[in-house]
Write a structure and sequence with these properties.
Layout (H helix, E strand, L loop, with lengths): L9 H15 E2 L2 E2 L6 H13 L6 E4 L5 E5 L6 E6 L13 H16 L6 E6 L13 H7 L4 H4 L10 H6 L18 E9 L4 H4 L4 E7 L1 E10 L3 E2 L11 H19 L2 E10 L5 E2 L2 E10 L2 H21 L3 E10 L2 E2 L2 H15 L4 E4 L4 H7 L4 E6 L15 H24 L2
Parallel strand pairs: 5-6, 5-7, 7-17, 8-16
Antiparallel strand pairs: 1-2, 3-4, 4-6, 8-15, 8-17, 9-13, 9-14, 10-12, 11-13
Helix pairs in contact: 1-3, 1-12, 3-12, 4-11, 8-9, 10-12
């Protein structure tokens, strides 16, 4: 158990979260979109919080900010998060990770030289809100980024990504130099709001994350024949929307059968007028699961169903892959240590997967032992100004992260 004399102050984290909210939010919510002036203001505020700590601060080639407390070993325990937000976002998403990590860093520094080097990282542009490319800084550090695929992405005003990030010191030709930041990384910890309803539905404040879902994301086009809505009998129609609608309902049953999630997020009909049978219907399908085999079965069942419904409606169907990422399980030892930490703080722990992706997924892809903690989200809301978590749960989350950090450092020291 952690001695009570440790100078951890969870209330300070809550106060700083409110301070950041007042500095970078308006009546619509948080406005810390990456590579904007408000985001830069948040980062300058964060640097002020580091002034009294015995740490080194640097910004890498991908605009990630690293705060380093040197230890007796060069092996590094990382604690990560992100200060950037979506437009009109909540007061906790991302920044809780950074500020809870800062409080843990303060506690560790107050104890003297730690057994391993401790680094706190504010990842650049986790959200991808401006250019549509999430996990920007962490994917550069992990080496999975292809800079040439990103240079010409544009924001809603037509500004190129390469030009925008250059204003913040990022050279796309050198961005993968950020990979050197992970060369001594031995463990990565991240705390995040759940962004979903599971913990609240179980009346639990905290949970341990098993890993992040794998994702299959596809565009599906059903093609039939447009015809007059009044003169075409029902049994003579080749209604593309009919097939798409059937699939939209079927993917819900597929998700239930396999314990995953499936979503049709976009539907476009053509010609798109009230007096015409739909000749073409384009939909998007997002499927997620923590198990790779189950995800593959979900995809195949959706494809089979789409073909069956196309035949029933006398239309054709074509699939086009939009994006794919395999499930990313977190480190088994760190899962156990996190479970211990949460149980010590909350009395009970629950293990659950993460549907959303996080920077932790990119760090894990780089081969670094990784773990995440979740804290309950009220009403399961996130990416909205209504996002909230009870303050007593926020305090418990800071305590759990701190205990996990102590356990992780002891584990790393035992490997020396």
């Amino acid at each position: 158990m952690q001695p009570t004399s440790y100078p951890l102050n969870p209330q300070r984290t809550i106060d700083e979260l409110k301070e950041l909210r007042a500095l970078t939010s308006n009546e619509d919510g948080a406005q810390r979109v990456a590579f904007t002036e408000t985001w830069a203001k948040a980062r300058a505020w964060f640097r002020e919080k580091l002034a009294d700590l015995p740490v080194e601060v640097e910004t890498d080639a991908a605009a990630n900010v690293w705060v380093t407390l040197r230890g007796r070993s060069d092996r590094e325990m990382l604690i990560g998060g992100h200060l950037d937000s979506v437009p009109n976002g909540g007061w906790l998403d991302g920044c809780l990770n950074v500020l809870a990590g800062l409080e843990t860093l303060r506690r560790i520094a107050a104890q003297g030289t730690p057994p391993v080097t401790v680094r706190l990282v504010d990842w650049a542009d986790e959200e991808g809100a401006r250019f549509g490319r999430s996990l920007f800084g962490s994917s550069a550090a992990s080496g999975t980024m292809n800079p040439d695929e990103l240079r010409d992405l544009t924001d809603r005003y037509g500004t190129r990504l390469e030009d925008a990030v250059r204003e913040y010191g990022v050279d796309m030709d050198r961005i993968l130099d950020a990979r050197q930041q992970l060369k001594n990384a031995a463990a990565y910890l991240e705390l995040h709001i759940e962004q979903g309803p599971v913990l609240e539905s179980m009346n639990l404040p905290l949970g341990v994350v098993l890993g992040t879902f794998g994702v299959e994301r596809h565009s599906i086009t059903f093609t039939g024949q447009s015809a007059h809505a009044g003169s075409t009998p029902m049994d003579h129609r080749r209604d593309a929307f009919g097939a798409a609608a059937k699939l939209g309902l079927e993917i819900r049953e597929i998700a239930k059968r396999h314990g995953g999630v499936c979503t049709v997020g976009r539907v476009v009909t053509k010609p798109g007028i009230v007096t015409a049978v739909v000749g073409q219907c384009d939909i998007t399908l997002d499927q997620r699961h923590l198990d790779a085999d189950a995800l593959a079965r979900m995809l195949q069942e959706a494809k089979d169903a789409s073909q069956r419904f196309a035949e029933e409606e006398k239309v054709s169907v074509e699939w086009s892959k939009l994006w794919q990422i395999h499930p990313i399980p977190f480190h088994p030892t760190l899962i156990e240590l996190a479970d211990e930490a949460v149980t010590e703080v909350a009395g009970v722990s629950h293990r659950l997967p993460s549907g959303p992706l996080h920077d932790a997924a990119e760090v894990a892809r780089a081969g670094v032992p990784t773990i995440m903690l979740f804290v309950q989200s009220l009403r399961g809301l996130s990416h909205a100004k209504e996002e909230d978590t009870k303050e007593e749960h926020l305090a418990m989350a800071v305590q759990a992260l701190d205990r996990l950090a102590s356990k992780t450092m002891a584990w790393l020291e035992s490997q020396a």
